[in-house]
Write a structure and sequence with these properties.
The complex is a heterodimer of chains A (about 400) and B (about 260). Chain A contains 16 helices and eleven strands. Chain A has about 400 residues and is an alpha/beta fold. The relative contact order of chain A is 0.15. By secondary structure, chain B is of the alpha/beta class. The model of chain B has no long low-confidence stretch (mean pLDDT about 95). Classes of the chains: A alpha/beta (about 400), B alpha/beta (about 260).
Chain lengths: ~400, ~260
């Protein structure tokens, strides 16, 4: 199993009452409520926490990117990746993911990840995403072309990493008279690409068709069977048999020495789910042309207040359905056993700390996860045959799979 | 409003099918709609159809017209409307452009002034305001945006009713998507339009609702200053969508404008 740590890096120090007053906490929620002194403290604390993550035995650290919202203080994924490349020695740096369509220059992004891959000595996993809808609004990247830009930026990125330059790129959305980045990725032909998502069928099929592992972001456990069925069917159509090595799962896990303390901290997971204010308006989450055509009516009804905004299920219910796992190490191991048996991922992202969980409690959670929970998960994973892409040395993409190994059915 | 007797046409231009509703006899008048589209045959259309051969097309990618996948800015839509007019053989015509449609009409006027006999710009987008802001539809819901185009809520309800039926929502969203495809950034203006407007020597009537909350009145004042043969009419007690909120007053202004002579030389 590949076991990774994650936190959104929330700006927990923002005044929550102002969010309640505004009725939303993203896009237009004023950054006058951001406190750089607290921000600096929080960033420095994250450095210590990430160092401990490596020390206690995690395989990876997952980083991500969001904009204009207190729930995440990572506005450029490659910045934290660069820092991790420098301050860690062993863990993989797992970007889940780079919002490719919002970048004006996929070529410069290719240069950045080449630097990170070399500085980290080949520890980069470069995941890619379309970016949440509000990122298109915040970065003013046209959502109507989001999917086209995703496809084209991906193709350019892979070519820039694998083919010798110089060559020209004349695409629909990106044009370069010279593609010839001097710095190049250390991992040949290129670092692994993983695709995180929240159950968009188009993205699932896209990931499967490229043979990129799909990392399901906290999808309710009872829906993961349906999710993998979509992936597996697409995988078989293009010619390979998918397995746990193609599957990743992110879920919220908080562990402390006592159940009481763990529950107190785990309730902070509700913080970013916007149970009081809702994080953003539906028309920011689904800006024009961003969503699937098949969901147009649903999204438009939501945008115009004809359907209630979806709210997170209550904490106790999420705990019961294992969307949130919290407790002592033994309690967490038993809950995670159910998760692994049901979902069968080989890549598990443990979202450890959120909201106002303080530095001391965060460190303790990381320590208990590493020293007590991870060894048990590895044993359970071995018993269930959950072997990750690194253990199996799987092909990094469909394009890089030997043709004689492929047997398309579609 | 009864749509009995309205002719529907579909014309192919560069692989794009443009749907239009038309009625009436007389000098040709074409009305270009707002970014939120044509909700049907409107009282304003009916008013003009009494004295003119009125055409109300769906802009390419809007309503019943097919989407030009390659179109990337509003000038592309103006070019298609120009070729649509050539194909129909109606030119020169009077063009009445409302809001976003006014921007399309302005672009058409600088590309092909010979194709337009008279121009009417109603709350037209296309120019960056110097003081205010054009309301950003991306930051509000579909219904909030359309309601903002009316000064009086009852005027909105007279056109759209109190409910939001599914087909209206779908159409609003498709129109919003097409608007984004050509006008996402910069939103609702073109810096390459202003330097060309002084070349347009067509008689132009600029009409603005005094209470316009979508495109600031200062934009109307600038259109009137930049275009050499233009005058500004401000309609009291009216919002952005003058065509829907005060159709009779706007139709009267259009008729008066058309009674003026040929373009200045």
């Amino acid at each position: 199993m590949f076991l990774s740590y994650f936190t959104e890096q929330p700006m927990a120090a923002y005044p929550e009452d102002e969010g309640l007053r505004a009725g939303f906490t993203s896009v237009l929620f004023s950054n006058k409520f951001f406190d750089p002194v607290e921000g600096s403290r929080l960033y420095r604390e994250r450095l210590d926490e990430y160092r401990l993550v490596e020390e206690v035995g995690f395989d990876g650290i997952m980083v991500n990117e969001h904009h204009n919202a207190p729930f995440c203080m990572q506005p450029r994924i490659t910045v934290w990746s660069s820092i991790l490349a420098a301050i860690t020695e062993r863990v993989k740096i797992v970007q889940l993911g780079n919002p490719l369509p919002t970048y004006d220059s996929p070529l410069q992004f290719a240069e950045e990840i080449a630097m990170i891959d070399m500085i980290s000595q080949g520890r980069l996993v470069s995941g890619i995403v379309r970016g949440a809808g509000q990122e298109s609004v915040c970065l003013n990247s046209n959502p109507a072309y989001n999917r086209e830009r995703f496809d084209e930026a991906h193709n350019l990125l892979v070519k820039a990493m694998t083919d010798d330059g110089p060559f020209a790129w004349e695409g629909e959305h990106f044009q370069y008279r010279v593609v010839n980045p001097w710095v190049r990725v250390l991992q040949r032909p290129h670092p692994r690409i993983w695709v995180p998502g929240v159950f968009s069928p188009e993205t699932l099929v896209w990931a499967a068709e490229h043979r990129y592992p799909y990392i399901s972001l906290n999808t309710p456990l009872h829906l993961t069977g349906e999710l993998w069925q979509i992936y597996d069917e697409a995988a078989r159509r293009v010619g390979y048999e998918p397995g746990p090595e193609n599957r990743g799962y992110l879920l919220r896990v908080h562990v402390q020495d006592t159940e009481e303390k763990a529950l107190e901290c785990a309730r902070e997971f509700m913080w970013m789910q916007g149970q009081f204010t809702g994080v953003g308006h539906p028309y920011w989450v689904n800006p024009p042309g961003y969503g699937s055509d098949s969901r147009r009516l649903l999204y438009t009804k939501l945008a115009n207040g004809l359907l209630p905004k979806s709210r997170a299920a209550p904490f106790e219910e999420q705990r019961r359905t294992h969307e949130i796992v919290a407790g002592t190490p033994d309690q967490c191991i038993e809950a995670l056993r159910v998760v692994l048996e049901t979902c069968r991922p080989s890549i598990l992202m443990l979202w450890g700390n959120d909201g106002k969980v303080d530095h001391i409690d965060s460190l303790r959670c990381i320590e208990l996860l590493g020293r007590e929970v991870l060894p048990a998960l590895r044993e359970i994973g071995d018993g269930l045959g959950l072997h990750d892409p690194f253990e199996l040395d799987t092909p990094i993409s469909l394009a890089l799979t030997p043709p004689d190994e492929l047997h398309p059915t579609g | 409003m009864s749509s009995a007797g309205v002719r529907e046409s579909r014309t192919e231009v560069a692989g794009v099918e443009i749907r239009s509703s038309g009625r009436g006899e007389g000098p040709p008048v074409v009305v270009l709609h707002h970014s939120f589209g044509n909700p049907g045959w409107l009282p304003f259309h009916e008013q003009l159809a009494r004295t003119f051969a009125l055409e109300a097309p769906d802009l390419p990618g809007f309503g019943g017209s097919s989407r030009p996948d390659w179109a990337r800015d509003v000038r592309d839509l103006a070019l298609l409307v120009g070729w649509w007019l050539r194909r129909r053989g109606d030119a020169p015509v009077t063009v009445v452009g409302c809001g976003f449609g006014g921007w399309v009409a302005s672009e058409l006027a600088v590309i092909w002034p010979e194709g337009i006999s008279h121009l009417v710009l109603v709350g037209s987008a296309g120019i960056l305001p110097e003081r205010g802001r054009i309301l950003d539809q991306v930051l509000v819901s579909h219904s909030e945006y359309v309601r903002a185009a009316f000064h009086r809520p009852e005027a909105y309800e007279a056109v759209y009713g109190a409910d939001l039926p599914d087909d209206l929502l779908i159409q609003w969203d498709l129109n919003r998507e097409m608007t984004a495809r050509v006008a996402w950034k910069p939103h609702m203006y073109n810096r390459r339009l202003v330097p060309l407007l002084p070349l347009v020597r067509i008689p132009v009537l600029v009409v603005w609702g005094e209470e316009d909350q979508v495109v600031p009145l200062e934009c109307g004042e600038r259109f009137a200053r930049l275009l050499p043969d233009a005058r500004l009419e401000v309609v009291a007690d009216c919002g952005h969508a003058v065509d829907m909120e005060q159709p009779e007053a706007l139709a009267r202004l259009v008729r008066d404008h058309l009674s003026r002579g040929e373009p200045c030389s």
